Structure formats: C-alpha cells, structure tokens
C-alpha cells in the first residue's frame, strides 16, 4: 500500500505500524534470514540449518524442509494449524485454481493418502498466493536495490487466474524464501522513503504507531473504567497501573525513534480504545493527536457534535487533538466494496466525498480501517489494487481542482504552505469536555473484558503484575540499549518485556464467546500463559525469591459457544457497526428428490456455524415460507449488515454429519447481506447459481 502511493504524489495518507509488528519483522525475518543470504543473493541452506532453524517463523522452517521428511508435527502444522495452508480465504483461493483443487482434494486436512508432492505444492501455494500480485505479474524494483519477480513460476490468464509453469520442486520452495526476504527487508525502507516529515512538511505518508504491545490502554490505566460503558457486565478485580500505561506509550515512542529517526506526532490507540484518563499519558510523551471512532464522539460531552471536525482534549502538559472515524465510509472500504469492481467502488467513495464538499465550509473526514482485513476479500479485484489505483487517480484530479485535499492529521494541524493547507493548532479546535470510554467496537471494551474467560485472564494478569512489583524489580529505561544477554540486568529486562507482552490486547480478544479463531483459540491461551510464566522465570533468574503460580489454561479444553456480539465471518477485526438486515433463504427441491427436511448450514451461528443439519428450514407456511408443502423450503434470519455469508443446504442427515444429504461437497454458496432492509435469496437444491 505504501509503494502504490509513489505514483500519486498529491495523495497523502497515514499508515500505522505497531511496535510489535516492527520488532517481529526485524528480529524474526530481516535479521535472522539475512544471515543466510550470500553476497551473490543466494540462500545458504547450510547456514540456515546451523543458525536459524527453529528461531524464526515456523512456516519458513516448513517451506525449507523437504516434504518427504515431514513428520506428524509438520503435517499437523501444514493441515491443522490455527492458520493452516488450507485456511486461505476462498476469494483469494479462486485466483489459483490448482491450489483450489488441491484444497478440495485434501478436504479438511491431509491424511495418510496425501502424497509428498501434494504437501510440497501446498506449502508452496500458501506462500505464493499471499504475495502481492505485483510480484506475481512481473519485476518490481525494490527501494533498497534488487528486484522481486515471481512471474517465472506461474502465468496469469485472461481471467486473472494463475497457473503453474512447471511442477513444483523443493528448489522452488527455497526460492520463495529468498523472495519473501526481499519483500520483508524493504517494508521499513519504503515507509521511510515516503514518510511525511512534520518539520520539513515533505513526504506523503504520516507514519504513526500504537502503544508498545498493543494494549487496551484505558484498561491498563484502570480496568474499572469499563463500568461506564458496560454497566451490566461482571468485572474482574480492579487492574490499575497508570505507570504501565505510560510505559507502553513511552516504549513505542522510543522504538519508533530507533526505526525512523524522529518521534511520532500521532498515535492510533490499539482498537481505537480511549478514555479521559489516558489523554495525559499521550500528551506527556509528545503525542499531539490520536484517533478513534465516531461512536465515541456520539457519547462524549457535549453531545450532538459532528465527526467532520477534529476536537481538542485539554491536559496540563499540552492539548491533544482527536479525530473521529467516519464509520460508514470506512466500513464501505473494509466490507461493502468487496463485491464491486474497483471503478464502481472508487466512484461511490468519491461521490460520497463530493456530496460533503458542496458547501464552502471546510470539513475534515477521517477514514480508518484495518490494513489486513479488507483486501483478500475483494471478489472482483485482486487485493483491492484496482480500487486503490482508481481511487488515487480520482483523488489526484480532485486535488487539482481543490475540491478534495487528502491530508495527514499532522499536516492538517501544523499546516503545509506548499500544498496551501492552513494550520489548525489543537488550541484552536472545539473542546470535548468529557471523552466517552470505549473502543471502535461498540464504543465499549466488551471484546476484552466482562466475560468469564476474559475476567479470569485479567485476574491472572493482576497476580503477575502484583508479584513482579513485590519482587522489587524496576522497569528498564526504554531510551537505553537493552542489557547484555544473560546478565542480571538482562533477566530483569526480559521479565518486564514478558509483562508488557501479557498486557497486549489480543489475548483478551480471543477469550470469551465473542471471537473465535479459525483453528481454535488454544494457541493464544498457551501463548498468554507462557508470557505470564516467563515473568516469574526471568524474575527468578534475576535473583528474586518468587514462585510461579499454577496458572491453569483458561479455556480448559471445553468447546466455546460463539455468542457473536459482533460479526466474525469476514475477518477477525472490528466491524464498526451493529446494524442488521433480514435475509429470507428459499430453497426449491427439484422433482425426483425426496426431502423429509431441508437444512441450511453456513459460517454464522444463525446458520449453525458449519455444523450440518442443525438449522432446519420450513415448508409449512411459517418462518417466512409463503406456501405450505410446495417444495420450497424457507427460513428468514436477521444477519449482520454487509457481512459475507457462506452457506449451502443439506437433506435428511443427522446433526453433525454431512452425508448422505450434502448438496455439493467441497463447495458452498456466497451472498452479501445488504446494509439495510430485507433481501430474498432464491436457490435450487444441488444447482450452483
């Protein structure tokens, strides 16, 4: 996304890079894989085996291990990992027919009959399909020198589908690792090249970051703040460590300086989570602006404010500006545009902007979305690139007419004379007297606190944090170099690193019934417990007299019932709205097929969560059925607006069993729920539309 902007110099935007992402990118990929690249650009497998294997991404290990040597653990990772090689989105999968056929041939996972060549192809495809299409279509010059080009491995046909040029070999798999390295080592350089410098007012992209380990900062400051937005939810014992909230921001600023050479002017609080109490934490660490969703503004004091303006939050250190995301337009990019062509989507986007620009009044509209969430689901546009190029072209023209000017928040606040943008210092902005506490999901914190599993996780965190403080180990200064390994100072540093990591948001995200990982939540439970245990293990190595509590797994092996407080079918991140629409499914059973019952099954709890023969349809004049006993089975449901629904029908089967009535094994139907109103879906059993 950053590289695309080079061709559109008058399109300015903001990209958030979290510290945890940047550190993993550098440590696990660039540094460690870099040891294995010779001066001639060849991957040295011997060095990898000796120094790196087991110390980087396990998928890299798998790609470099010959498929004929795969053991049961390797196969389990390949087929059944939380994000396995079979878990790729069906939208992306359709662009690679050989990968698609391989997935359906293997079904839900590889068995004893899976051949060595099939495993080799599967690991290859998993990497290849996730490359940006630019690298698949021809040579791309990289900012740090060199070229990435995978077009010799597969050819694209007139329908935009890719086919292998030759049978896959282990050499091809090793080649992919080299190309992965080329791309990953250029991520930071391309962002540095295009970075907007608030001092010189030059550059296109404002690079911001998030508090260090991606925590829900208001809950670290005081978890009882959630009582305001979740008055009916049970809460865990109070967790209140303002110093940790400050350190999470301070460490993010320090690492940003290390990478980019300057300090960030703005921050995206993890998940847009804010509260009145944490604003001074940002201010005293030099952060001049933050962002969240308009749902927060709607509940703040004074009420009735327009989100088409930034606002001022007072602190004794300095005022902090806050901008509020336009939920509707942001979610259109993230979810609604997935079924449109790039031109159709960019036309809708710009028309909605121009409707706001008809007045002489200056307005600031803010669009924010998850960078990883949208593009793989764009059905008619590989990775959404047609949409982005089309949008950028239109925004360039609108800049020339001065109708629409894209700005970064810092550029808006500080001004940019070269682009004729006047300054809007925070002190000049309208004030918010009381900021509502919450995130960009439901304007609350209910994804991270308030359910039994989440509350247990907070209780564990409180115990570890209390014990670490009692051990008398002081947190390290984030602006100094890490201590030398295996010294008492280094063990203290690692104890705090483990503590900060355990304070991250994603552990709590997966707990509870409102989110569910594709391969189950256990890997996240294991990782969270490991971070907590490491707090104690490193503290003991430092010399503290401290025993490790018996932190039991929070999931405890029981299946989770998905409550769906929010939609989880089109990605795992925020949907940003709770709107629903009604969908009437009608399935006609052709003559000659005897159907005592027809069931619908799909990727929503309302559709059985892919458990077959669980959700029954009706041919009795009820539940949306128009005429009893006419062979048309019906069911009307209320579903998440704009959600992508995957579903199919079954006949006469036992709950949990696909046979004997699965209409077409290995395939399913797809429909997108409208944003409002009611939709009727007409199908014929066994006939793909």
Question: How would you describe the overall organization of this protein?
Answer:
Among the domains are: 22-192, no CATH class; 328-404, no CATH class; 452-542, no CATH class; 580-684, Immunoglobulin-like. The protein is globular and about 80 Å long. 34% of the residues lie in helices and 11% in strands. Mean pLDDT is 91; it is low at 558-578. It is an alpha/beta fold and 689 residues long. α7 (116-128) packs parallel to α9 (170-184) and α16 packs parallel to α17.
Biggest sheet: strands, sense, closure? 4 strands, mixed
Structural class: alpha/beta
Work out the number of β strands. 17
Q: Give helix % range.
A: 25-40%
List the helices and strands and how they pair.
Layout: E1 13-16, H1 19-34, H2 45-52, H3 58-64, H4 72-80, H5 90-93, H6 97-106, H7 116-128, H8 133-137, E2 140-141, E3 147-148, E4 154-156, E5 162-164, H9 170-184, H10 187-194, E6 205-208, H11 217-221, H12 242-260, E7 266-267, H13 279-284, E8 289-293, H14 294-299, E9 311-313, E10 320-325, H15 327-334, H16 342-356, H17 385-400, H18 409-414, H19 452-470, H20 488-502, H21 505-510, H22 522-542, E11 580-588, E12 598-602, E13 615-616, E14 632-640, E15 644-651, E16 669-672, E17 678-684
Parallel strand pairs: 1-6, 7-8, 8-10, 11-17
Antiparallel strand pairs: 2-3, 4-5, 9-10, 11-14, 12-13, 12-15, 15-16
